[in-house]
Amino acid sequence: MNDTRASAAPAKDWKKQRRFRQGFARFLQKIGKRRGDLRAFDGPLDSVVILAQEKLGDAILLTPLIGNLRRAYPRLRIHVIVFSQPVYDFFSTDRNVTAVHNAKKKPLRYAREVLFSRFDLLFNTKDHPSTHFLIQSILIPARVKAGIANPFHEGLYDLLADTGWHTHIVVKNCALLDLLGLAHTPEGCRPYIPEMAVQPELKTFLHSMPARELLGINISAGGPLRYWTEEKWQELTGRFPGIRFIVFSAPGDLETKRRLETLPNVIPSPPTRNLYEVSLLVQKLRLLVTPDTSLVHIASCHAVPVVGLYREAAQDLSRFAPYLTEHTLVASTTTQVSDISVDNVAKAVATRLTSGKS
Fold first, then answer.
1. CA geometry: angle at 309 spanning 304 and 310, to 5°?
2. Residue 118: closest CA among 180, 47, 184, 217
3. In this structure, how many other beta carbons lie within 10 angstroms of the beta carbon of residue 355?
4. In the chain, pLDDT over 70 holds for what percent of residues?
5. pLDDT at 207
6. Which H or E run includes 218?
7. Angle at 66 between CA 64 and CA 69, to 5 degrees
8. Please, are residues 275 and 56 in contact by the beta-carbon 8 Å criterion?
9. What's the pLDDT score for residue 107?
10. What is the per-residue pLDDT for 14?
């Protein structure tokens, strides 16, 4: 009974927040100056400001758009507005980005460099009404404002990219290229990880790591409902005694990582300090097994096959699936990844290793 009440309360709060956001959007639609008369972007494009979403996985899925913009417009000033420190750190080393602005942590600099500037184009990456993103869309001066088509965005943006709800997030972001009349390909929209510092210990490990031989298991996730259990990870590695594994984890799960690394076919590896270090390891894997986290998208950067563990949520399976890489998705029959059986995951791993087919 306690579990039921605990899960029902957040769901109720989420519905309340959604109603508030929708009501706020309707309010803006009524009082604001109506936009939306443009059918395509017109005029010079010297500067663009992009509102980036808050999670690292979303940041990775935004890189295809940024990379395509940089290739099409080598001198374009690309400004990225972020609302979390991890995403700020991620884009701070991206050579395709002109400037990153943390709207929450550095409000004075944000006001000076963004709110008192003027851009040719603004792009809101969210495909649903977000109070904060709508406010920023109004405050930031831009000649043309673009977003993802949604009833609550109508009249608030000059251009709306019409994508279905279950369209992959990479495709949604790259829909801005269509509005700009820029040709692009699926491969050209493959994500990337900006280069970051690499610790000496990891460089040494990478030098000794065989290419496309080891299997990676990622034991961390973005929330408690997305975790698989330590016991199940241990049993999974035991099902494949002839295969060697390495373990990925967030800092909070290092003790679990170390315990798993005492297993006979698990190789101890240095803890990673940033996503670029993670990507250097992932690109040398034969296969990655991971819950629905940013590591799914890091594997997509390098076309590394994935066995993904997902909750019973259709939108997660469609919008946040691996992009342009072979994969098998194992979905729970509940809202908890921990309810996925070892048998189902082991079967997916075995199938992927032998056939390479979903």
1. 120
2. 47
3. 10
4. 96
5. 97
6. strand 215-218
7. 110
8. yes
9. 86
10. 77
CATH number listed for the domain at residues 200-355: 3.40.50.2000
Instruction: Give the residue ranges of DSSP H helices in the chain.
Output: 2-31, 56-72, 85-92, 107-110, 131-139, 169-179, 200-208, 230-239, 254-260, 275-282, 294-301, 314-319, 342-355
Using an 8 Å Cβ cutoff, are 51 and 126 in contact? Answer: yes
For the chain, domain boundaries? 20-189, 200-355
Domain 20-189, what fold? Answer: Rossmann fold (3.40.50)
Q: Determine contact, residues 60/297, Cβ cutoff 8 Å.
A: yes
Start-to-end C-alpha separation, the chain: 38
How far is 247 from 219, CA to CA, in rounded Å?
A: 7
d(CA 188, CA 199): 30
The CA angle 40-41-46, to the nearest 5 degrees, is: 170
d(CA 267, CA 248): 11
Tokens of 115: 């709110």
Contact 325, 303 (CB under 8 A): yes
Contact 125, 48 (CB under 8 A): no
Identity of the residue numbered 128: H
Burial 301-328 (b: 16+ CB within 10 A, else e): bbebbbbbbbbeeeebbebbbbbebbbb
Question: Which residue has 């510092």 as its token pair?
Answer: 197
Distance CA 328, CA 219 (A): 17
Orientation of helix 294-301 relative to helix 56-72, angle to 10°: 30
CA separation for the pair 101, 323 (Å, rounded) = 28
Domains 20-189 and 200-355 share a fold: yes
Ranges under pLDDT 50 in the chain: 1-8, 357-358
* Residues 67/96, Cβ–Cβ less than 8 Å: yes
Who's near 86: CB < 8 A, 6+ residues apart?
Answer: 56
